[in-house]
């Protein structure tokens, strides 16, 4: 079976995270610099995904918070400038639904993760480029990756939750 190489189109792709703040609201953040490739057969069977994000590109709409997230309290961007994901399996679960398993590395800590994927389809853009779209969702416990900073709050609980939702909306460009 012939394999096709795809690359992330960064202008049409996002990698975001959501985390509970003060147990009352959701804080959203984005890594604005992402890159990656997918090697796949027709209809994306046996696809192999490889993605990374530049930690210094984190954006939560608050410069002071972004600086704190880049510090040793969280991502330690100076020592660990990238987070990455390399797939180990891509399994069809329905017409447009897949399960993506692989290894997520944050701060040189690598853990297995399973992500839910919805394949949005494939289309040609007005310039003749073939594109494919995917929605990828998952959750991690940030403590497992050395992201342990927190503060107790007066009402009880912690400032930020341990569970982090990961959201990637990816558009691939066929090479």
Q: Mind explaining what this structure looks like?
A:
By secondary structure, this protein is mostly beta strands. It has a single domain, classed as Lipocalin, CATH 2.40.128.110. Helices cover 5% and strands 57% of the residues. It has one helix and eleven strands. An eight-stranded antiparallel beta barrel has the order 1-4-5-7-8-9-10-11. The radius of gyration is 17 Å and the shape is elongated. It starts with a strand and ends with a strand. The mean pLDDT is 96.
Which helices and strands occur, and which strands form pairs?
Elements: E1 4-8, E2 14-21, E3 25-31, E4 34-40, E5 48-54, E6 58-59, H1 63-70, E7 82-92, E8 97-106, E9 109-124, E10 130-141, E11 160-174
Antiparallel strand pairs: 1-4, 1-11, 2-3, 2-11, 3-6, 4-5, 5-7, 7-8, 8-9, 9-10, 10-11
